[in-house]
Amino acid sequence: MILFVDMDEVFADTYNAHIVRYNEEFNENLTVMDCMGREVWQCVPEERQQSVHLHARTEGFFSDLEPIKDSKEVLKELSLKYDVFVASAAMQFPNSLIEKSDWLDQHYPFIHWKNRILCGSKHILNGDILIDDRSYNLENFNGRKILFTSPHNINTTGFERADNWLEIADKLL
Amino acid sequence: MILFVDMDEVFADTYNAHIVRYNEEFNENLTVMDCMGREVWQCVPEERQQSVHLHARTEGFFSDLEPIKDSKEVLKELSLKYDVFVASAAMQFPNSLIEKSDWLDQHYPFIHWKNRILCGSKHILNGDILIDDRSYNLENFNGRKILFTSPHNINTTGFERADNWLEIADKLL
After folding, report:
1. Engineered SS bond to A119: which of A137, B117, B118, B169, CB 3.0-4.6 Å?
2. Is residue B6 annotated as a catalytic residue, yes or no?
3. The CATH classification of domain A2-13+66-172, taken from the options 3.30.70.1070, 3.40.50.1000, 3.90.1170.50, 3.40.50.2000
4. Helical H runs in A1-151?
């Protein structure tokens, strides 16, 4: 069984990294609770939105991400039962490619390079299960689709949902 | 119709780049004709094989590749008729990721970042046609498989074959 797992906002905490960088840059106190149901850039004044958009093009942004709670342990267990592939739509940000590869080596060394996919869109993936925080990625996938909860998608309906990695473990292990 | 196209030895001339680097390094005159039916590293004395293996980990190796004859023109035409995706098994060489992305921007800017895939293995691809120089990539693909001729695969049998990009044009345009 082939299991695809998205990276950003599923096991790499991009969302919180945007907030931390924004707060540092503008000396603000934005919190995740302020942002529920929206993207981080949508929660800041319009004249600062471009600055948030630029985070993903900033050297080190993807290197510094925190792993999401319980993802290491559960992904390690999942790797024993499934053919687990990381599938990240990273091609928009060429600077992210090496950072993502190095980050996986550092935090998830059990995910072999053969099982890593950096792509631009995900409808070309052929497998059994996809865990992703973006409905547009899940919509075009042929297998079982699991929406991983992220602050931006709390109001999205119509998908099987997992709120955290222990719920993923319950569903798949 | 989704058409996947491998990069190295299909439209990026990795094979010849290995020969050029080897000749420069050891002041030799190895030619493509000397290597027919084999990988470049198999055509050099054993004590120099490791040096050839290291090319792909050398900064600039993938930046400097020559586009293969007629590939630009034919890929551009194909992009009008098919949903063309570049699919390169690049994850083994993390240094190649940004170089491949930049090289595509430089030589094939009409291939959008959404249509670029850097992966470790290709059996996870879901589409209609795959053009590749490696039989092990074609074997696990579900659609039409076209083996693109490279010096190393001239003795491989059992696949529809294209010797050059004009033959690809004849087949697919």
Report:
1. B117
2. yes
3. 3.40.50.1000
4. 14-26, 32-35, 46-54, 71-81, 95-107, 135-139
Torsion from C-alpha of B138, A142, A154, A10, nearest 10 degrees: -20
Cβ neighbours for B52, distance < 8 A, ≥ 6 positions apart: B18, B21, B22, B40, B41, B44
Q: What pLDDT is recorded for position A123? A: 93
**CB contact at 8 A, A82 and A173:** no
- Specify the domain boundaries for CATH 3.40.50.1000 within chain B: 2-13+65-172
pTM > 0.90: yes
Q: Burial letters for B119-139: b for 16+ Cβ neighbours within 10 Å, e otherwise?
A: bbbbebbbbebbbbbbeebbe
CB atoms under 10 Å from CB of A2, counted, come to 17
Tokens at residue B90, please?
């690049």
CA B120 – CA B89 distance, rounded (Å)? 5
pLDDT tens sequence across A44-98: 999 999 999 999 999 999 999 999 999 999 999 999 999 999 999 999 999 999 9
Domain with CATH 3.40.50.1000 in chain A: 2-13+66-172
How many helices (H) and strands (E) would you count in chain A? 7, 6
Contact list, B112 vs chain A (CB under 8 Å): 120
B3-58 per-position pLDDT tens digit: 999 999 999 999 999 999 999 999 999 999 999 999 999 999 999 999 999 999 99
Residue B163 designated active-site: no
Contact A125 B125 (CB under 8 A): yes
CATH number, domain B2-13+65-172: 3.40.50.1000
Residue B164: both structure tokens together = 């050059």
Q: What ipTM goes with this model? A: 0.92
